[in-house]
Structure formats: structure tokens, C-alpha cells
Amino acid sequence: MPIKVSLAAVLARRNVKSKELAASIGITEANLSLLRQGKVKGIRFDTLEAICRALDCQPGDILRFEPDSETTATPAQEAGD
């Protein structure tokens, strides 16, 4: 998947433990761990908002797009534009 999660790096820079973040935003440590490892297919906007509020960061600090060989066409190309 071309979307990469860099939550672990943000946590390290902020010196925040996953357990602390999970408790402060109201999700389980297991779910936060899956997110931190990039093993999820999606994230709810309210969860992303809570993470950004707690870590004082932007969504782009946590998520980034890295195209791979399977993702060469843009949405406009796929739509026939």
C-alpha cells in the first residue's frame, strides 16, 4: 500500500509512549499498535484528529504517500481523463 504510517517516529520525537497516547485518545493499545505498525487499511478521521490533537501535529506528520510499482496511474488517468 502506498500510504505509509510514521506514527512511531512522531511518538519517539515527542517522547510519548503508545500506552499514554492510547489512554489519552480512548482507543485500545492493541489498535494503536496496529496503526503504529501500518497494519491497518484505514483510520477514522475522528481518531486521526484525536492523535493530532494529543501529539500537536498535522495528519501529514503521521501519514505519507510513497508510490510503488503497482500505483503508477493517477486517479485522473484511471478515470480516462
Automatic annotation (TrEMBL):
InterPro entries: Cro/C1-type_HTH, Lambda_DNA-bd_dom_sf. Coiled coil: none annotated. Residues 7-62 form the HTH cro/C1-type domain. PANTHER family: DNA-BINDING PROTEIN, DNA-BINDING PROTEIN-RELATED. This is Transcriptional regulator. It comes from Ancylobacter polymorphus. The lineage of its organism: Bacteria, Pseudomonadati, Pseudomonadota, Alphaproteobacteria, Hyphomicrobiales.
